[in-house]
Amino acid sequence: DLTAVSRAMPRRRLFQRAVLVNLTNPKSIIFLAALFPQFIIPHQPQALQYLVLGVTTIVVDIVVMIGYATLARRIAVWIKGPHQMKLLNRVFGGLFVAIGALLASARRMA
Fold first, then answer.
1. The whole model's pTM is what?
2. Fewer CB atoms inside 10 Å of the end CB: C or N, the chain?
């Protein structure tokens, strides 16, 4: 149970663990390795450019994650009820079925 783990572990430790997971996420590393070079000017100092891109990415990520956490905290009470969970499962299940049907019916573009 995730809530039991979060209660047993201090917030600082949870934060450190989350940072470690994000820094070692291979998808993020590959994404940033493919994205950053497109914004680098080769004949100018590259270290500073990478630093600016890295800091900008981290700041934006922190803002987005704070937004997710705030939203999650506000809707947590609503989501925890059994009726609400059933409704939420049906809504997202329906969305997945609809997206699957759209993908199955899509024609390949040449």
1. 0.60
2. C
